[in-house]
C-alpha cells in the first residue's frame, strides 16, 4: 500500500467544496494525526471547474470515479436518492469505503446499503448526515456504547432553528429568513425538506436506529414542520415560561403507565420546552442533541448543524477513521469477510445486524406528550368551565391557563397547557371542544415537553 490515501469527492456543491478547502487548510494537521498523506485524486462533477488543482482528475462519469483504481475512499456529497445511491452501491461493489453526508439516502435506503457494505466488507461512514459538525454518531455508537438509551431529543435542522430564532428575536418574516439560510448554504436543495420537518425526520430515523438498535424506519416517523407556527404562539409560550423549538424525539416506552403502549415513539414537531432548558437556548443554525441514557444520565451535544465548514469537519473525521481501517493489516483479511465477525469495526447501526430488534414503532395516536392549546371562544359565562370539563372528563390534567380580559373585544384566545396525555385522548377532547357553540375557530395545538 502506498503511503498516501486517495480520495474521490463526488459532488462539488457547498459540502464538496468545503471538504476540498478543509484538506487544503489543514493538510499538515491531517498528516500529523493519521501518519498518511490524504490526497484528492479525483472529483466527480458534471461541470468542469477551473478553480480546482490541475493534478486532480475531474470526471463527469461519477460511476467510473466510484470504481477507479486511483481511489481508496469515495466521499459522496451529491445529495438526492437516485444517482447518489447508484454511485455508492457501485463504490461498495468495487471494494471502496464510502463517506456520505446523505441523510435522505440513508434514512430511506440505509438498511439495504449497510447490508451490501457488510457483504463486501467495506464501511459506509455517515457522521456528516446528522447534526452537521456535531460528532453525535461517534458519540452514540462508541462513547455511549455501554449505556441503555431511554430517549433523545434534538434540534436537528439548522435552517429551521435559524428561522425560529430570527422570528422570535427580531420578528422577521418567515420567507425572508429562509432565503438568508439558503444564501448561507444551510438549507436543503428543496427547502421544504427543512421547513416541513422532513430533513429532521431523516436524521431522527438514523439517531433512533443507533440509539435503540432497530432497523431504519423513516416511513414511520411522525413529521410536522414549522410552517404553521405564528408569532402569536411564540409570544404566548414565552409569557408562560416556555419557548417553541422544532425538535426530533425518539422515546422508548415500556407500557408501564396508564394507557401507555409499549414501543418506540419517533416524532418531529414544534415543541414548547421550558425557557431555562439548555435546548431552549440553542439558537441560530446551531443543532443540539440531548441524550438520556442509563446509567450515564442526560448529556447534551451542541454545535453547528449545517454549513460548509461544519459538514466538512464531520466528513473528514470519517475519512480519518477509514484511514486507520485501511492501515490495519487485516482490514481485507479473509476472516474479516465473514459477516458474523463483527470484532473489528463499529457496526453501521451501532448494534450487530443480527441483534437489531423488531420493537414496534408507535402510531401517532399512541404517543404521549403534554400540550399547548389555543382555543378561541366568545366571551360568555361558562365557556372556560365547558372547556375544562371536557378536558377533565378525558382525564387530561391542566397545568396552566392564560386568558386576557375579553369583555372589550368579545372573543379571545384561551391558552391551556396540559400534562402529558395519550394523543388519542387529546384528539377526542379537541373534537368535543370544537363542537361547543362558544368556540369560534379550530383549536391550535402544539406539543409540550419538560425534557425531564
Ligand atoms: N438543511 C440542513 C439543515 C443541512 O438546515 O440542518 C444539514 O443537514
Quick overview:
The chain is α/β, with parallel strands linked by helices and 452 residues long. The chain contains 13 helices and 16 strands.
Describe this protein with a few key phrases.
Alpha-Beta Plaits; Dihydrodipicolinate Reductase, domain 2; binds L-homoserine; 452 residues; alpha/beta
Give the strand content: 25-35%
CATH 2nd-level architecture of the largest domain: 3-Layer(aba) Sandwich
Give the number of helices.
Answer: 13
Structural class by SSE content: alpha/beta
For the record, give the distance between the C-alpha atoms at the N and C termini, rounded to a whole number.
Answer: 52 Å
Average predicted local confidence, pLDDT? 93
pLDDT under 50 segments (min length 5)?
329-342
Helix proportion: 25-40%
Stated plainly, the CATH topology of the largest domain is called Rossmann fold
Tally of domains: 3
CATH class of the largest domain: Alpha Beta
